[in-house]
Design brief:
Strand content: 5-15%
Structural class: alpha/beta
Number of strands: 22
Low-confidence stretches: 84-104, 514-525, 546-562, 777-829, 1244-1269
């Protein structure tokens, strides 16, 4: 009675506790859930026992049944899904990730799943069901992965351990080990993973033990004492249960391993990203953006994958030990022969692992170089096309690729050797063990009896051993990959960082430090408060001594004396609040370096930098993010409409927004690709202005805009009456027309401040500044311009310009004008097209394409090899079955004969196995990789610029890095696995059907079940893999954007926001990967369940047919049945994995079949004179063009003629089409509606060679709605229509100094002459004429000096001069200057103009310039307005007409 009352009280309390638990958590308690399961199981046994004891009529039985029902109800309630959101602490709600991720507060699918759901992966069922009905989308898998493995938590989780370790190593002067930290960071998370792995190992070997008992049971029926049938049935159920438990343990092991892998990978990606924001100048030279992206996309990925396999290093030896012990029970001491094989091969394995490790290191090194160069090329693809350098860069890329393939060949051979060791080792162990056992395995060294029980239990055990032995290759391979990846990331993480103490950001007022140390601070209180102060500063881009804590400083031996000299010295600077200070100086004197020093981007060797308040920075080359115009301007700040409108007006952006497709919601392409240079700079200025900072650092923003825009920005934004009039402004400029209005002027010369003072003081001093003003000042003309214009024409023109400064977009931006919305599918707010995932099954064309790349004979040979190896393996087992049958029947077979044949079959299997793997990994695999890479590389370099305008670099780099790497290494492995398991499953089914014919009746049913499961899985798996692949691109793109704009991000102290954005993108990618891996485990669980049914059915049929079935055949059938669970599961998995990896081939092929621009070589090229163009005559005839099919025209019916050797100046307001004219001349854009415009279009209605570039009726109707229906006219050079000339021939016969001077990583020599056509004296002569010889000769190595990525170790002005040197080297008859001198000072500009007039006097020159002064001496001026020719005549004539050119010149102060 007391027990009943106690039980009742306990259950009453448990109901209350259960209610509280429901309120506190969003999932059922694992412990309560497990308690219910145990209680139900025990109660069921109790009910059965009471039934057997005939207690059913007693009240105790009735009460217990009620209790049993109550437990069942409780279990149902506990297992019922919960949707309530648990209460969370305030600190968790304020977590950074909560700000960014909309669904962060919602419980994740994993966190809500109960014990049963997690064990069976049922929480993934709804995703699989959706995927079966339709193509999965990213929203279908949102919020899947556990909260604790998201980036915000995983970063803290990994970084905390790494930071502590780093501090200890620095104190003890030891080398830190990131590998140890990665392992240590897992902490107690490793414990359940290892427990599950060991549990799986035990369950794996329970089945062979039960097989031994079953065969003993069947053998008993050939004796006088048969065992009871119930025992056979129990044994069959036992084998089924062992298979299920093994499957659950395996699933949980891989699940938890995946969770930990994602956690560590996300943490490392965040560490890599955060490190990129802190890299010192020296570290930035060592780690290029391509290498850093590789650390994230390849190295961190491999570490995450390797984490799952590492616990197998513990479970594999454990399984081997169990297997050897069980074999010892069967074969006695003979079993140690097999162990001896493993021991003897261990040194070979170590040697192979060493070779593999070295090969992987070398391959990744070559891959880094390839990706770095590819990123560089894609970033400067416009320059590559303008100079026709595709072939040169392709050869350089292929050189890296050939090195990569050479090491990949070594990897392939090594992997083939490893495969022969690990896949064939069980057969060798079986052979040697049976040889010893058959000769001396009996009692007292007599011959052993080869009974069915001994042979097939031993074979089953050897097959079980093949799993841990086979895993050894995976473990070693993954461990090597992880070790290599960890070392690479560690080297990066140990690069020196910018010191956070370099710049002191103060919230309190800052006062000038005087030169009298003894003067008390209080005496300075009456001086004006300062915004910026630099005292005794000395700065350098090179550090003679590495920053404390760095383990990879540059050696001093590698630096010249020039490198060790400070870039800036003796810098004393004080900028008061509310003042406007201008910095001037010649190219390369240190102006931009001064701003970099103030923002903390240089090494501070001595001195002090202080900034009072917030800082905003506008770099010389505007940094634009791939987002809407509004998001670029607001830049993470709270949106304030009133302030936003003021900023837009002051920045001169209002007219631009009126013509953009979606106003300020229009997406700006990557790197601002769809904006003109002036528009990008104004967006950059607007961003800075919106920040409402206290200090503004402006690095020559006015050089990129036209003269009238310059005036607008000065009056409304930067100048003494502008929006920023109350802010401290430090402005670099080369213009002199605003200097009389500034508060302070500094002249920078040779890395120091040469002169400083107000405008009046410097003019009075009559120094170098006075000479500069006297020679170039246009202040008097500006004064005259300020007076009202007397004539009405001038006034009207001027007012028109003020009203609509930018009535049309320039250049690339013009493609977004939106007057006509009909049939313009590409014309909307989103310039960058969303990356689309293919739908449905991976096409057989994809597999066929891969097989074709590998060659059909090699592909067929691979399949044939696996078939023959499987036939050989079946032959080995049938031979053993024949041997046991003869032993069983009492015959004495010839041991020599049986062992000889068996040995021959084993070695034949070895040969076939090695040969087929060598074919797949080396012969076919490498050839396919090479061909696919050549195809995509050749195609991408030949794609039109419109493709790059709408495609982020990260998306393209993803193909060249992640996808190519998958094709290189993963695809051959999965292909080999698929062939192996496919032939193994067919072989197994044949053997079981022959052994137990009735089993054939089950095959249709089982096949149907497998197909249903497979179809459900494959549809979802494909979508999930594609989602995962696509989710990487935004992460890579954001990473690339950050690396380019790191200086701006640091200066504006926006690090935290960008880190959060990176975390969100990383979590999105990790969530997709998590869903993909869980879907894989979902499949495994169900396939292994079906496999367990096969085992149960086979063992049950063997038990039921015990009287007619020979023990040998039963053993053969059961040994194969026990393997089929593993075989079928991995067949389906490998098929899914193969399809997933073929998606990489699909993605590569997607870019390999896109429409190219016009051919490099055309038939007419051979008919042209070798010196064409010999005169330089250019004729535009009714020429119209657009940037992409379906967009508005940027040039409209343009007609004009340029005579040989004429100098033509091109002017026009922003958006008039000036740069578009030059792009048309180089055929970067084609004539509207022309053959090549349609043929190279890659939009939604692309024109391919297969359709002969024809249009379908719908497309014709759409194109008919565009502004012009006739063709776009033509351009002739020396009487030749350039559309009939090959692009290579055309572009190499023209020269250009582009608006954005582009340099590539490599030597100065390679940047000047990538084809090595010029001699060193010719290069030096070109540099001398470009006024750059002195600077280049002072650099270490001279022409061999390494240019940093994007030319970061040269100023923008110096880059322009290098581009001038390129033009001098080409010696073509036509030269185009596209605002080439915008970034140089007026003195250097004058020298360049003299060089151009002298060196190019016999050439035709087309000059686009913001400075009207630079084109006033042109023979003719071409004035463009809204894409049309407004005026075209001599400058004097146009000034007399007082038209548009007159107005522009007047605004520029030239009249």
């Amino acid at each position: 009675m007391f027990g009943t009352v106690a039980l009742l009280v306990a259950w009453v309390f448990s109901i209350g506790l259960n209610h509280l638990e429901n309120q506190a958590d969003n999932r059922s308690s694992t412990y309560i859930y497990a308690f219910y399961i145990v209680s139900i199981t025990v109660s069921a046994i109790s009910v059965r026992t009471m039934h057997d004891l005939t207690m059913t009529g007693q009240s105790q039985f009735s009460s217990f049944c009620v209790f049993f029902g109550a437990i069942g109800c409780g279990f149902i309630l506990e297992a019922w899904p919960r949707s309530s959101i648990p209460n969370r602490s305030d600190d968790l709600k304020n977590d950074a990730a909560d700000i960014l991720v909309e669904d962060w507060d919602k419980p994740t699918a994993y966190d809500q799943s109960n014990l049963f759901s997690r064990l069976t992966f049922h929480f993934m069922q709804h995703v699989i069901s959706i995927g079966y009905c339709r193509t999965l989308q990213n929203k279908d898998i949102a919020n899947m992965m556990p909260r604790r493995i998201r980036t915000v938590h995983s970063y803290e989780f990994v970084f905390r351990v790494w930071d502590r370790h780093l501090q200890k190593c620095r104190q003890s002067n030891k080398m830190p080990s990131l590998l140890w930290i990665v392992l240590k960071a897992g902490g107690w998370s490793w414990a359940p993973i290892i427990i599950y792995a060991l549990t799986e190992s035990v369950m794996e070997f329970v089945q062979p033990i039960l097989l031994d008992v079953i065969l003993n049971f069947i053998s008993s029926y050939s004796t006088d004492q048969p065992q009871p049938t119930a025992l056979g049935l129990i044994l069959s159920v036992g084998m089924f249960g062992a298979a299920i438990l093994s499957s659950m343990a395996s699933g949980q092991f891989f699940q938890l391993g995946t969770n930990l892998g994602i956690e560590l990978k996300s943490g490392l990606i965040s560490m890599i990203y955060r490190k990129s924001l802190k890299l010192s100048p020296g570290a930035r030279r060592e780690a290029t953006s391509g290498e850093i992206t590789n650390h994230m996309s390849v190295d961190a990925e491999r570490i995450g994958q390797a984490i799952t396999t590492l616990p197998l290093a513990i479970s594999a030896p454990f399984e081997i030990a169990i297997g050897i012990w069980l074999l010892y029970r069967q074969l006695g001491a003979s079993a140690f022969t097999g162990l001896g094989v493993v021991v003897l091969l261990m040194p070979v394995q170590g040697l192979v692992a060493k070779v593999l490790n070295k090969a992987k290191d070398k391959k990744l090194e070559a891959m880094d170089g390839r990706i770095r160069l590819a990123t560089d090329i894609l970033s400067g693809i416009r320059a590559v096309k303008l100079y026709s350098w595709e072939r040169s860069f392709r050869e350089r890329l292929e050189a890296y690729r050939n090195t990569e393939l050479k090491h990949l060949r070594h990897i392939g051979i090594t992997v083939a050797v490893m495969m022969i060791m690990f896949t064939s080792m069980p057969s060798l162990m079986t052979l040697l063990s049976f040889v010893v056992y058959s000769l001396v395995g009996g009692p007292n060294g007599t011959k052993g009896i080869m009974s069915a029980q001994v042979v097939f239990v031993s074979i089953t055990l050897f097959n079980r051993l093949s799993k841990p032995i086979g895993r050894a290759s995976v473990i070693i391979s993954q461990a090597i990959s992880m070790n290599v990846a960890v070392k690479r990331i560690q080297s990066y993480l140990l690069l020196e960082e910018l010191s956070e103490s370099q710049v002191e950001y103060l919230e309190t007022p800052l006062y000038k430090v005087t030169s009298t140390p003894e003067k008390p601070l209080s005496d300075c209180d009456n001086s004006p408060p300062l915004a910026i102060q630099v005292h005794d500063g000395e700065f350098s881009w090179n550090s003679p001594v590495a920053i404390s804590g760095s383990t990879s400083p540059e050696s001093k031996e590698q630096r010249s004396g020039a490198d060790l000299r400070p870039t800036l010295s003796n810098i004393n600077l004080a900028v008061p609040h509310g003042s406007l200070t201008v910095v001037m100086g010649r190219v390369g004197q240190g102006k931009s370096s001064l701003l970099s020093a103030i923002t903390g981007d240089m090494y501070k060797q001595q001195g002090r930098i202080q900034i009072s308040g917030k800082c905003a920075y506008v770099p010389q080359q505007a940094w634009i993010i791939n987002a809407t115009v509004r998001n670029n301007i607001v830049f993470g700040k709270a949106f304030d409409q009133e302030k936003y409108d003021r900023v837009l007006f002051a920045s001169g952006l209002l007219p631009d927004l009126e013509i953009l497709a979606a106003g300020d919601q229009t997406e700006i392409g990557e790197r601002g690709i769809n904006l003109s240079g002036g528009q990008k700079q104004r967006v950059s200025l607007a961003r800075a202005a919106y920040q409402d900072a206290d200090v503004y650092l402006l690095d020559d923003p006015l050089s990129a805009v036209d003269a009238h825009v310059d005036q607008h920005l000065w009056e409304n934004l930067i100048g003494p009456k502008g929006l920023l009039k109350d802010k401290a402004r430090l402005l670099i400029t080369h213009g002199v027309h605003h200097l009389s209005e500034v508060d302070h002027i500094m002249i920078v010369k040779d890395g120091g401040i040469d002169e400083t003072g107000s405008y009046a003081d410097l003019m009075a001093a009559q120094g170098s500044f006075f000479q500069l003003i006297g020679e170039y000042s246009v202040s008097k003309k500006k004064d005259r311009h300020a007076v009202e214009v007397g004539d009405s024409t001038g006034r009207e023109d001027s007012m028109a310009i003020e009203r609509a400064e930018y009535d049309n977009e320039e250049d690339k931006a013009a493609g977004l004008t939106a007057n006509d919305e009909v049939a313009r599918e590409d014309d909307n707010a989103d310039l960058t097209l969303e990356e689309q995932a293919a739908e449905g099954a991976v096409s057989w064309k994809v597999f066929k394409g891969y097989a074709k790349a590998a060659t059909y004979p090699l592909s067929f040979l691979s399949i044939l090899g696996f078939i023959l190896s499987q036939v050989t393996q079946i032959g080995m087992n049938l031979w053993l079955q024949s041997w046991t049958s003869q032993e069983q029947s009492g015959h004495q077979p010839s041991i020599g004969k049986f062992l000889g044949v068996y040995a021959g079959l084993v070695f034949l299997y070895f040969s076939l196995d090695f040969g087929v793997n060598l074919t797949i990994f080396v012969l076919a695999g490498i050839r396919a990789s090479r061909i696919l890479h050549e195809n995509i590389l050749g195609r991408v370099l030949r794609l039109p610029m419109s493709f790059f305008d709408t495609t982020p670099i990260g998306r393209i780099v993803n193909r060249f890095s992640s996808d190519v790497d998958n094709v290189d290494e993963l695809l051959p492995i999965h292909l080999s696995d698929f062939y192996y398991f496919l032939t193994s499953v067919f072989g197994t089914l044949i053997v079981i059907s022959v052994s137990v014919p009735i089993f054939m009746a089950l095959i249709p049913f089982l096949v149907a079940l497998y197909l249903v499961v497979q179809v459900w899985y494959i549809r979802s798996s494909r979508s999930l893999k594609r989602i995962h692949s696509i989710s990487k691109s935004p992460l890579y793109q954001h990473f690339s954007e950050t690396l380019i704009g790191a200086s701006t991000i640091r200066a504006m102290r926006a690090d935290d926001r960008f880190i959060l954005e990176n975390s969100a993108k990383s979590d999105k990618s990790a969530n997709a990967y998590f869903a993909y891996k869980i879907a894989n485990r979902w499949l495994h669980m169900r396939l292994e369940f079906l496999g367990a049914i096969i085992v149960f059915a086979t063992s049950l049929l063997a038990v039921l047919g015990r009287r007619t079935l020979a023990p040998g055949m039963a053993g053969l059938a059961l040994s194969y049945a026990l393997n089929i669970t593993f075989m079928i599961t991995y067949l389906m998995t490998s098929f899914g994995d193969l399809q997933d990896q073929l998606i990489s081939v699909e993605r590569i092929q997607e870019y390999s079949v896109k429409d190219q621009e016009a051919p490099d070589v055309m038939p007419k090229d051979d008919k042209l004179l070798t010196n064409w163009p010999s005169e330089g005559k250019i004729v535009f005839r009714n020429y119209s063009t657009r940037y992409r099919q379906g967009m508005d025209l940027v040039l409209k019916n343009v007609s004009f003629e340029v005579l040989p050797t004429e100098k033509i100046g091109v002017v026009g307001r922003t958006g008039a089409g000036k740069s578009s004219l030059t792009l048309a001349l180089f055929r970067i854009i084609e004539a509207a509606n022309g053959h090549w415009a349609k043929a190279s279009h890659n939009g939604q209605s692309s024109y391919t060679a297969s359709t002969s570039y024809g249009l379908n009726p719908t497309e014709e109707e759409e194109l008919g709605t565009i502004e012009v229906e006739e063709d776009g006219g033509l351009i002739e050079i020396d009487g030749v229509d350039i559309s009939t000339v090959g692009l290579k021939h055309l572009r190499q016969r023209l020269s250009i100094i582009p608006q954005d001077p582009t340099l590539f990583a490599g030597s100065v020599r390679e940047n000047l002459d990538p084809f090595n056509q010029a001699t060193d004296p010719e290069l030096w002569e070109a540099l001398e004429r470009a006024h750059l010889k002195g600077h280049i000769s002072s650099l270490a190595g001279g022409l061999s000096f390494e240019v940093a990525q994007n030319g970061d170790n040269f100023s923008v002005g110096q880059r322009s001069l290098i581009c001038l040197a390129r033009a001098l080297l080409r010696k073509t008859k036509i030269l185009v200057l596209d605002e080439a001198t915008a970034a140089v000072d007026v003195e250097t500009d004058e020298l360049i103009q003299k060089t151009i007039r002298k060196e190019f006097k016999d050439r035709t020159i087309i000059t686009i310039a913001h400075r009207i002064k630079t084109i006033m001496d042109s023979d003719k001026i071409l004035v463009l307005e809204r894409g049309r020719v407004e005026e075209f005549d001599a400058p004097a004539t146009l000034m007399q007409k007082q038209g548009l050119f007159y107005s522009l010149a007047k605004q520029a102060g030239e009249h």
